[in-house]
Amino acid sequence: MNETTTTPLDHPLGRLGAVVREDGEVLLRFERHYDVPAADVWSALTDPERTARWIGRWSGDPTEGHVLLTMTDEEGAAAEPVTIDRCEPPSRLEVTAGTPDGPWPLTVLLSEEGGRTRLLFTHRLAEPYDAGDIGPGWHYYLDRLDAVVAGGPVPSDFTAYHPRLAGSYPVPEP
User: Fold this and answer.
1) Is residue 4 in a domain?
2) In the chain, how long is the greatest CA-to-CA distance?
3) What CATH number is attached to the domain comprising 53?
4) d(C-alpha 37, C-alpha 79), whole Å
5) Which of 16, 8, 13, 24 is nearest to 125 (CA)?
6) Does 17 have pLDDT greater than 50?
7) Rounded distance, CA 138 to CA 34, Å?
8) What range does the domain containing 47 cover?
9) Domains identified in the chain, total number
10) What b-and-e string marks burial along 145-162, b requiring 16 or more CB atoms within 10 Å of the CB?
11) Does 74 fall in a domain?
């Protein structure tokens, strides 16, 4: 069983990401742990049937370096371009998501030890660093990923995350 299947209302602080300054950048980071091999988490991150359950449906040929992603939990969402910058199964995925607010560079690193997988998710934020809105959103979607990996029910109430967690993602001073 996956230990990360609780809702943010159960563990609002233990599951938060962090906003950090590193090498002149502002990064939003989340760390999650799974009691499954990295290949299973990788499948949840890349298999279109599984991604549709937690973030969205993608179409296209990823071997061409890009796909279109339609968010499945956002009514009326248009397909947005996603560029695949680096893909090293089952340990590293770097993409740039095209959004109406500009590009979102995202990195997912997986490491496995003893059948247990650590996920490190990083979103490089652009100024003006809207971490108060973006942080709760990724928290929500990563909880949905957790549910897919665990084979459990997927959270569907974004209001449990935002605005409740908006103040949990302050940008540190330079």
Assistant:
1) no
2) 42
3) 3.30.530.20
4) 31
5) 24
6) yes
7) 17
8) 25-168
9) 1
10) bbbbbbeeeebeeeebbb
11) yes
Residue 45 and residue 48: Cα distance in Å, rounded?
A: 8
Return d(Cα 32, Cα 146) in angstroms, integer. 8
pLDDT in tens, 43-83: 999 999 999 999 999 999 999 999 999 999 988 999 999 99
> In the sheet where 56-59 sits, what is the strand order?
18-22, 25-34, 116-125, 102-113, 92-99, 80-88, 66-71, 56-59
17 domain-assigned? no
Long-range contacts of 42-46 (CB under 8 A, 24+ apart): 42/89, 42/90, 42/91, 42/93, 42/110, 44/145, 44/148, 44/149, 45/93, 45/108, 45/145, 46/89, 46/93
Q: Locate tokens 């974004």: which residue?
A: 158
Q: Which two tokens stand for residue 134?
A: 């973006």
How far is 3 from 10, CA to CA, in rounded Å?
12
pTM of the model: 0.91
